[in-house]
# Entry
Amino acid sequence: MRKKDHKYIFVIGGVMSGVGKGIAVSSIGKILQSKGLNVNLVKVDPYLNVDAGTMNPTEHGETFVLKSGLETDQDMGNYERFLGKDLGEENYITSGMVYQYVIEKERNLGYGGKCVEAIPHIRDEIVRRIERAADVNGSEVSVIEIGGTVGDFQNAMFIEAARVMHMAHPGNVMFIMVTYLPIPGKIGEMKTKPTQNAIRQLNSYGVQPDVIIARSEVPLDKKRKEKIAVSCSVRSEDVISAPDIESIYDVPINFERDHLGDIVLSKLDLHKRAGKMKITQWKSFVARIKKQKKTVRIAIVGKYFGTGDFTLSDSYLSVIEAIKFSAYKLGVEPEIHWLNSQDFEDKRKLDTLKKFQGVIVPGGFGETGIAGKLAAIQYVREKKIPYFGLCYGMQLMVIEYARNVLKIKDANTVEIDAKGLNPVIGLMPEQKKKLEKEEYGASMRLGSFPAYLKKGTLARKLYGKEIVGERHRHRYEVNPEYIEILSSKDLIFSGVSPDKRLMEIAELPLKKHPFFLGTQFHPEFQARPLDPHPLFTGFIKAAIKRRTK
Ligand code: GLN
# Structure
C-alpha cells in the first residue's frame, strides 16, 4: 500500500534535451536514499511506442530490460545503478501504454458510454499509473522524470497530470526544473535568458518550480543565481549549480554542495522522517574512479553503426558501466575501444586485436558484420586473449567453435541462415509461433530467469553459488539437438535453465583458455557501482593478467 503522505517530486527539463535530466533524477534519488528514505524512481516517456523494445538503439540508445522483462529506456538502467536496487515495471510509463490502455478500456465500454478524451481520461490514467508505482513498492518518495523538454507537444499531458497531482496532494508534491545555461563562445558570458524563458513556459502550464537545477559548463556564480532567483520567483538558495563534471557518479555529491537534499526535505516536510546522510561507500567508489593510474585495454567488437562513437557507446551503456564497475573494483581504469567488426572480414586486420587485454562481443541482431565477429572470436580463442560474449556474442562463440574446432563447417544461426543444414543456434519453439504471426513487440524471451551452474566450472567459481537469476532478451538459443556434439570436446555449458533445455553459459576450461566465456543472458543489466558483476570482474581480472605476462 502507498504510504500516507507519499511525496512526489516531478523533474522537468527546460531549454534543451540531453543535459542530464536522467542523471539528476538518479542523483536526487541517491541523496534521499542516503538519508534513509525509501525512494521510488519513475520515468514517463512521451513516445507512442508501448515499450522501448521496438526502437532502434542507434536512435534511442540502449534498450534496458527490467527484471520483469519490460523493455525500457536507458534511464531506467541509471536509476537502478544509482539506487542499487531493482525497479518494477510500474516505474516505467509511456504515452503508448497509457493510450493503449484507455482505448482498450473504451472498446470494452469501460467508460460507461462517456465521450473519452485526452482530458480527463488520458491525464487521469497517467495519474493512476504514477500513484500505482508508489502503491506497489511501498516507498515514501517518488521522483518522476518527465521525458522531453517543456514546450514539447508530446509531454504536455504529463505536465498537466503533475499539475493536477499538485492540487490533489497538497504539501506533498514539488517541482524541479533542470535547465541549461549556455556560455556562447564569442560572448564569453553565462546567459540566463533561455532558463528564464523555459520557466515562463512552465508557468504557462500552471506549474511553478520549487527548485532549479542549472546545468552549465562551469559552476554558477552568485550573480547568476540571484538573477535566476528574481526572474523566476525562486529563492537563490534553491538554484542549484550543476557544472559539467568528470563522472556522472559524482553528481549526487556535487548536488549536496548546494544542499539539494536538505532543500527537498524541508520543502516536503520530510526532515522528521530522514536520518543523517550515509554516503561514505558511494564516496569511496567515486574516489576510486578518479584515482586509477593503471589501465586495462578492452575492445568491444560490434557492428558498425556509422554514426560515431557517441551513439555506439549509448547503445551499449550498461556494458560500459559494467566494465567500469569491475575495473574500478580491481584498481584499474578501463580504456574501451570500439572496433568495427566488418574490418575483420579482412583477416590481415585481426592482428590489431593483439594489443588488447580483453575482447567483448556484445548483444546484437541480424547479419551485418557477423563474418568479422566470427573471425575475431576465432582469433582471440586461438591466441588466448580473454573473451566475453554477451547474448549474440555467446551464440557466435558457439558457432565459431562448431565450425573451427568441431569442423561443422556450415554451422550457423537460424537468424542468418534459416535453411542451413547445421543450425547450432535455433529458434525457440514459442518464438517461432510469434514470428509467424509477425508479433514483434515484447515477443522475445525477456526478463529474469534462473540458471543452474555446474560444479567445477569458471562460472560457478566466479558467482560462488549454484543458482543465479539473470535478465534475458533473445529469440534464438543453442539448438538442443546439438548440445551433445557441441559438448563433445572442451566446450562446457556451465549454466543451464532448470529444465536443462536452454544453455545459459558456455565456457572453455581454464586449462585451455584464460577466459573464454559467453552468456545467453545480459549480465550487464545487473552490474551495480557498489556491487560489480562477478562475470565482468572475472573477465577484467583475466584481462589484467594478460598485461603482466
Ligand atoms: N539476435 C540474437 C537473438 O535474438 C541475440 C540477441 C541479443 O544479443 N540480445 O537470440
Remarks:
- Residues 118-137 form the longest helix (20 residues).
- The first strand starts at residue 7 and ends at 13.
- The CA atoms of residues 339 and 482 lie 31 Å apart.
- Residues 363-365, 391-392, 415, 473-476 surround glutamine (CB under 6 Å).
